[in-house]
Design goal:
This protein is α/β, with parallel strands linked by helices. It is 34% helix and 20% strand. Bound molecules: flavin-adenine dinucleotide. Flavin-adenine dinucleotide binds next to α1, β14, α15 and α16.
Length: 505
C-alpha cells in the first residue's frame, strides 16, 4: 500500500490518519509533543486537570463519524452529553442570562430578561440556519479549489438567495438591525470570537455560528473525561486500526525530488537527522511554519501565508480550592466597552476591561479537581503575537483586572481561593503548538474573501503534499479541523486515488 507520513497529531492529523488508514494506506504520524492532541492537550497542576485549549464542543457527530467509518459503535468509546444551559452570561449592570440550548426556551428567557420578543430571537436563529443551509455544504464541507464544488445545484440556489447572506453588512450591523437591544447584540456579536474574528469587521454571514449553539439539532456538548479525552479516544481508534505513532519526534524537513514541473514530496527528515521515505505527506502543522521551516527551498504561496491571523488568547488556569455554585460549565462576564475591546485587539494589545470567559470542566468531570475544588479555565481574547508586545507586563496588570472584575461581578472573594496557577499567552501558544503567532483559529474571517483565501488542502507547489488542520481550509475550531481531514482525504482520492484495500494488520 502507499506509505503516507503525517506531521502532527492534532485533531485533524488524527482524523486524517484514521481516514487514510481506512482507505488502505500505511500511515505513520510524527508528533513533536509527548502525546496526541496538540491544542487539545491536557495540563496538570497538582490535583487539578485542565484542557489546554478548546473547552466548547459543538458538532460531535464529526467525531462519531470516524468511529462509524471504522465499523465501531461511537458510544462504546466516546460518550458525550448535551448541555441544557449553553452559557451563563453576566453584565456589569447586574443583568444575568442563562442561554438555554433549546431555541424556544432561550428565546423565552431573552424575552423575560431583556424584553426582546421571543419571536425576534427565533427569527434571528432561523436566519442563521438559513445561511448555513445555503452555504455550509459548499464552504465548509468541500474543497473550494475543485471546480466540481462550484457546479452544484446548491451553489445555484445560494446565488439566487445572495441577498439573504448579509455579505455587505458586518456581523454587528446585522445584529443591530435584527435584535437591537444592546445586551443581546453583544451576546450574539460574541459568536465572531468562535473563529477568532472581530464582530465589527466580520461579514454578516457569520451569524450562522449562533445556529451551531442554539439550533434545534445542534448545541454545546461535554465529553466524558473532559476535552482532552477526545484526542485520546481518536488516538486509541487510530492505533487499533494500525496507524503507527512516533511521539517526541519533530520533523525537520519535507524531502522533495525534482519531478516534472513541480517538485514531489518523497519523505521526511526528522530532527534527529533520520530520513523516512513516504509516497505522500500530510502536514497537520501550521501551514505557515510548514513552509518556513520544513520547505525552506520550495516556492511558497506568499499571499495566502501573509493573511491576517485570527486572535489568540491569554489564559489563566486556576486551581480553586472552593466551590462557586453560582457558576455553570461556561460563563461569560462581558466587557462594558465591547467596541473598545476589539479596537485594543486590533492595535495589538489588551483593553482595561476585557470580556472574561470562565469554563469549569469539573462541573461534569469530577476527576478534574479535588473534592470541594474547581478547575477554572479563565480566558480573554488577546491579539496574535507580535514582537512589540510585553507579555509579562500585560499579564501582570490583566490578572489583577480579571480578579477584580470577577470578584465584583460574583460579589465574593476569589483571590485567596487560587491555589494553583499557570498562564499561557500568545507566545506560549505559538511555542507549544507551533501555531503561527499563537493564532487559535489560523487566519481570521474578518473579510468577505476569507473563505477563499485560506490555504487549500493540497499544495500547488509540491506534488504529493497535502494539508489539514486549523490553518487551512475550511478553518479553525474542532468541527472544521475534522472537516479539513475529510476534505483533504477526498482531494487526495481525486488527485491520486488510494487502492481501497484496508487490512488492519
Ligand atoms: P494542532 O492542535 O494545532 O496540532 C498540531 C500538532 O502538530 C501539534 O501537536 C504539534 O506539536 C504538531 N507539530 C507541529 N510542528 C511539528 C513538527 N515539525 N513535527 C512534528 N509535529 C509537529 N476549538 C473549538 O472547537 N472549541 C473551543 O472552545 C476552542 N477553544 C480554543 C481555545 C484555545 C486556547 C485554543 C488554543 C484553541 C481553541 N480552539 C477551540 C481551536 C482548536 O483547538 C483548534 O482549531 C484545533 O485544536 C486545531 O487542531 P489542528 O489539527 O489544526 O492541530
Amino acid at each position: 500500500p502507499p506509505r503516507i507520513g503525517i506531521i502532527g497529531a492534532g485533531i485533524a492529523g488524527l482524523a486524517a490518519a484514521i481516514r487514510l488508514r481506512l482507505e488502505g494506506a500505511h500511515v505513520e504520524v510524527f508528533e513533536a509533543g509527548e502525546t496526541a492532541g496538540g491544542k487539545l492537550g491536557e495540563l496538570v497542576l497538582g490535583e487539578y486537570r485542565f484542557g489546554i485549549g478548546p473547552s466548547l464542543l459543538t458538532m460531535p457527530e464529526y467525531i462519531d463519524e470516524l468511529f462509524e467509518l471504522a465499523g465501531e459503535v461511537p458510544g462504546e468509546h466516546f460518550r458525550y452529553q448535551r448541555l441544557d444551559t449553553v452559557c451563563r452570561y453576566a453584565w456589569e449592570d447586574g443583568t444575568r442570562l442563562d442561554a438555554r440550548a433549546d431555541p424556544q426556551a432561550f428565546a423565552e428567557e431573552v424575552e423575560r430578561v431583556l424584553g426582546v420578543p421571543a419571536q425576534r430571537v427565533l427569527a434571528t436563529l432561523d436566519h442563521g440556519r438559513e445561511k448555513y443551509d445555503l452555504t455550509g455544504r459548499t464552504f465548509l464541507e468541500k474543497s473550494l479549489h475543485t471546480p466540481g464544488t462550484w457546479l452544484t445545484s446548491e451553489v445555484g440556489h445560494a446565488l439566487t438567495r445572495l441577498h439573504r447572506l448579509d455579505l455587505t453588512r458586518t456581523l454587528h450591523e446585522v445584529h443591530q438591525r435584527d435584535l437591537g437591544e444592546p445586551h443581546l447584540v453583544q451576546l450574539f456579536d460574541r459568536f465572531a470570537t468562535y473563529n477568532g474574528s472581530n464582530p465589527y469587521r466580520a461579514p454578516g454571514l457569520l451569524s450562522m455560528i449562533a445556529h451551531f449553539e442554539h439550533g434545534a439539532d445542534a448545541g454545546a456538548f461535554v465529553p466524558e473525561g473532559g476535552m482532552p479525552a477526545i484526542a485520546q479516544t481518536l488516538y486509541g481508534l487510530a492505533s487499533r486500526l494500525g496507524v503507527i505513532f512516533h511521539f517526541e519526534t519533530p520533523v525537520a524537513e519535507i524531502l522533495t525530488r525534482k519531478a516534472g514541473r513541480r517538485p514531489r514530496a518523497t519523505g521526511l527528515r526528522l530532527a534527529n537527522d533520520r530520513e523516512v521515505l513516504f509516497d505522500r505527506i500530510v502536514s497537520n502543522m501550521d501551514v505557515f511554519f510548514t513552509h518556513e521551516r520544513l520547505l525552506p527551498h520550495a516556492p511558497a504561496p506568499k499571499r495566502v501565508l501573509a493573511r491576517e491571523k485570527s486572535t489568540s488568547a491569554l489564559i489563566f488556569y486556576w486551581g480553586v480550592d472552593r466551590s462557586f455554585p453560582e457558576l455553570d460549565v461556561h460563563n461569560i462576564f462581558f466587557s462594558e466597552d465591547y467596541p473598545g475591546e476589539f479596537e485594543a485587539l486590533e492595535a495589538g494589545t489588551l483593553c482595561d476591561d476585557p470580556t472574561v470567559y470562565v469554563s469549569i470542566s469539573a462541573r461534569y468531570d469530577r476527576r478534574a479537581a479535588p473534592a470541594g475544588g474547581e478547575n477554572w479555565f479563565v480566558m480573554i481574547n488577546a491579539p496574535f503575537a507580535a514582537p512589540e508586545q510585553d507579555w509579562p507586563a500585560l499579564i501582570e496588570c490583566t490578572r489583577e483586572r480579571v480578579i477584580q472584575k470577577l470578584e465584583r461581578m460574583l460579589g465574593r472573594g476569589l483571590r485567596d481561593a487560587i491555589v494553583e496557577e499557570a498562564v499561557f499567552d500568545p507566545t506560549t501558544i505559538e511555542a507549544r503548538t507551533l501555531s503561527h503567532r499563537g493564532a487559535l483559529y489560523g487566519t481570521s474571517s474578518n473579510d468577505r474573501m476569507a473563505a477563499f483565501m485560506r490555504h487549500p488542502n493540497y499544495s500547488r507547489h509540491v506534488d504529493g503534499l497535502y494539508f489539514c488542520g486549523g490553518s487551512v481550509h475550511p478553518g479553525g475550531g474542532l468541527p472544521l479541523c475534522l472537516l479539513s481531514a475529510r476534505i483533504m482525504t477526498e482531494v487526495m482520492a481525486r488527485r491520486e486515488p488510494l487502492p481501497h484495500t484496508f487490512d488492519a494488520k
